[in-house]
Write a structure and sequence with these properties.
Layout (H helix, E strand, L loop, with lengths): L1 H5 L4 H21 L1 H4 L11 H33 L7 H21 L10 H25 L6 H32 L3 H11 L1 H25 L2 E7 L4 E4 L2 E13 L2 E12 L2 E6 L2 E5 L4 E5 L1 E5 L4 E9 L5 E8 L3 H18 L3 H19 L1
Antiparallel strand pairs: 1-10, 2-3, 3-4, 4-5, 4-6, 6-7, 8-9, 9-10
Helix pairs in contact: 4-5, 5-7, 5-9, 6-7, 7-8, 7-9, 8-9, 9-10
Length: about 375
């Protein structure tokens, strides 16, 4: 939790870092307003540049909501003297619709041409993604009980629309390249991406945003939570997992002592592994820290989280959480980093094209 950092020794450095990023980025933008200002106006609301502008507004709105919710305890304490925090339902209320719209427009943008789009060309490129989105939405409502979670249903449908649109653009670029130079589709896609790194790097970043949204939605909307007191040898069921408590072990440490519970994990009647959630007790500080055990399944994208607790009598309590699709969040981080590298990697040919375009624009302005 960001609020936990505020009560620790790293609170001040993190606050300084936030201030440097906020003030520094604002100063950079203001100092370069003349270079950043577009020389052309938006010709049509139904164009790629218009949709990109909407995406930017949505990203800024998300940042504003999260910033306000995170800093609200400090703001409330400053003006009222009481520190009040905003809980998860407040964040969900405002970030969820913004995230759903962001995923939708992330898919729409690459399908549209610059400047102006005709309805005939729009119909041709939108048919495939819309058909996939409808199929995924109907299938999710019927098979996975998504109908009772309208935001999750919308996000999964829009995410399938966006991913299909991005895949369609990659395929179209590769097919056009293959007609000119021959070779295979994968090779043609790589060749086109190499000549347009910023564009295709941006597509990869768009895919990362969609994967991130799917991971957050799946892990929150469809997580299974179970909590139970367990005796040695007793089992509990959570989702597809059977958890058997095999007792606890205590070990002294230089700071105090630690207690670890041994929990055998079974899935489908087959032993998977032993997890060891526990607690650390620090004598000097008279504080306990919970050591959660996590089992990640990268194949299914699912996490099993075990949170232990002990009462004064030494009884063992276990809270188990099964979070589907949560690993997509970490995969999205890797994809985002890869897309950023593609977009930022120096390309002499692209630099020459940009320099020529910039020089022509300057010449027109001076004329």
């Amino acid at each position: 939790s960001i609020h936990a950092f505020g009560a620790s020794t790293v609170g001040a450095p993190i606050l300084v870092l936030i201030a440097v990023v906020l003030i520094g980025s604002t100063a950079l933008i203001v100092s370069r307003l003349d270079d950043l200002r577009s020389e052309k106006r938006i010709d049509s609301l139904f164009s790629r540049e218009s949709i990109f502008l909407v995406n930017n507004f949505l990203l800024v709105a998300l940042c504003a909501v999260i910033f306000w919710g995170t800093m609200f305890p400090l703001i409330s304490e400053l003006f009222t003297g009481n520190k009040a925090s905003l809980a998860a339902p407040w964040f969900d209320q405002y970030t969820t619709p913004l995230a759903v719209l962001l995923v939708l427009f992330t898919g729409i943008g690459p399908l549209l041409a610059w400047r102006r789009v005709t309805w005939e060309s729009a119909r041709r490129v939108f048919v495939g993604p819309i058909a996939v989105a409808l199929a995924v939405g109907i299938g999710s409502a019927l098979l996975f009980d998504t109908g009772r979670r309208p935001w999750a249903l919308l996000l999964f449908a829009f995410a399938s629309f966006a991913l299909t649109a991005l895949a369609q653009e990659l395929w179209r670029g590769g097919a056009a390249r293959r007609e000119l130079a021959g070779g295979s589709i994968p090779g043609a896609i790589l060749a086109v991406a190499a000549r347009n790194r910023r564009r295709y790097g941006g597509y990869v970043v768009h895919a990362a945003i969609v994967l991130l949204a799917i991971g957050i939605t799946g892990s929150n909307a469809y997580q299974t939570v179970r909590e139970q007191r367990l005796a040695v040898g007793q089992a509990m069921q959570v989702g597809a997992y059977t958890l058997v408590y095999q007792g606890s072990e205590r070990k002294n440490t230089p700071q105090g002592f630690e207690v670890r519970g041994n929990v055998d994990v079974y899935k489908g009647g087959r032993f998977v592994e032993r997890l060891r959630p526990g607690k650390n007790h620090y004598v000097r500080e008279q504080q306990d820290s919970t050591e959660m055990a996590i089992r990640s399944d990268m194949l299914t994208g699912e996490d099993l989280d075990l949170v232990p607790d002990y009462d004064r009598n030494g009884n063992f309590y276990l809270k188990a959480l099964v979070k589907p699709l949560v690993n997509l969040i970490w995969i999205a981080g890797v994809v985002f980093f890869a897309g950023s590298l593609i977009a930022l990697w120096p390309d002499a040919r692209e630099q020459r094209r940009l320099a020529e375009r910039y020089a022509r624009g300057r010449a027109l302005v001076e004329a």
